[in-house]
Specification:
81 residues; globular
Amino acid sequence: MGRRGQRSARPFAGAVARWRAVPGGVDSHGRVVTKPRELENAQWVLAMCQRFGCLPSQLLAEDASFLRLLALEELAADPEV
């Protein structure tokens, strides 16, 4: 944990470094190197904050129905855009 109960990005640094080095490649165990889930979550939260002009704490404090609407919208989005 980081300061004041916040999680540190450090535990994910190795996984992010592997993904940046060989995205879509294969590791020594034969597994495809994919973008770490924690990075995807962080990017999504930050994109939504930018979209709505709020802080992550404000976004995450929203009612679950709002977050479900965003998830539904994401499912319908064109992956090519």
